[in-house]
Amino acid sequence: MLPHENTTRLISLDMELASRPKHRGIDGAKNFSNAGGLHPKQPPAQPMDRLSWLMLISLSVLWGGSFFFTEIALVDLPPLTLVLCRVSIATMVLWWVVVLRDIAVPRDPKFWAGVAVMGGLNNLVPFCLIVWSQTQITSSLAAILNATTPLFTLLIAHIATDTEKLTARKAIGVLIGFGGVVVIFGLPTSGNTIGLLAPGAVLLAAFSYGCAGVFGRRFAATPPILTAAGMTSASSLMLLPLSLMIDQPWHLPVPTTSTILAVLGFATLSTALAYILYFAILKRAGSSNLLLVTFLIPVSAILLGVGFLGETLMMQHIIGMTVIGAGLVMIDGRLMPRKRG
């Protein structure tokens, strides 16, 4: 999964950067002293026009498609090798965009240390956990559980920052959202612990995305595409020795054409293009509207999984997804009645 993956994936939610003077260099020390990254109050959501909706739906299909591509590629490739292919190919595409845009690449070690942390939190850990989980559960269920990313992000931001505290409404939304997870799996017992490992891996991935969302806010002064290229580069370097030691890819059979196409789709569409589209929507429609993609990703993944992979969902999964969605609606707040002053 992406990005956020989701939203998950939030590298930088403050795009008023566009109105600031452009810098050819990056002062890593200044960037890393701003742990909050965001202003206490988010700007109001901008109106969504047809093009914004089209871009948002396209992004949901790209990110929802990551679960679909994973399911196909896992037939021939083990998880670590698959994730390595994803991030390494995406890295080449993203750096090509950086070069085309003539973006200055910083030399400050603190910047590269920061993107290395982002590569671990936003790529290495969640990608590997989600891909492994899909060896045990369906892509549709993985996508539903991944929708909990904003819930974890809010909790982590509440604990780790002074400017992103939970309001009563958002706290209720978080409780409702996690209630949906309980609906899906029930309360853990001694008899179903093993069966919760794969779903738990997706929830742990969502937690990692939440950490990345909070940590990544310190990159507000960095061109977003540069942050994305840096973190996929870092995760590629971290994954390479793991893949070589554990998967020993030279012993793997030659992948089929469908697997190769799935990997290319996984890397170029669901990762590189998704990052580019993500930041374009962020600049055009704002972070509040971008949150809407969280509602659409599971729908896209379910349509692809049920329509093309023959997956099925249990009624409790559908109900749980609905409850999680209700929690996200509560957090988003735009459908809530407003007091008149």
Task: Provide tags for this entry.
341 residues, mainly alpha, 66% helix, globular, disordered N terminus
Order of helices and strands: EHHHHHHHHHHHHH
- Work out the count of structural domains: 1
Number of strands: 1
- How would you state the average pLDDT, rounded? 84
- Which value, in Å, is the CA radius of gyration? 19 Å
Largest sheet data = none
Shape: globular
Uncertain stretches? 1-43
Q: Helix count?
A: 13
**End-to-end separation:** 43 Å
Provide the β-strand percentage band: under 5%
Q: In short, what is this structure?
A:
The protein is mainly alpha-helical. Helix content is 66%, strand content 1%.
Overview of the molecule:
The chain has 341 residues and is mainly α. It has one domain. Helices cover 66% and strands 1% of the residues. It contains 13 helices and one strand. The protein has helices spanning 28-33, 50-73, 79-100, 109-133, 139-146, 149-160, 168-185, 197-215, 224-247, 257-285, 287-290, 293-308, 315-332; one strand at residues 3-6. The longest helix has 29 residues, at 257-285. The termini are far apart. Residues 1-43 have low confidence and may be disordered.
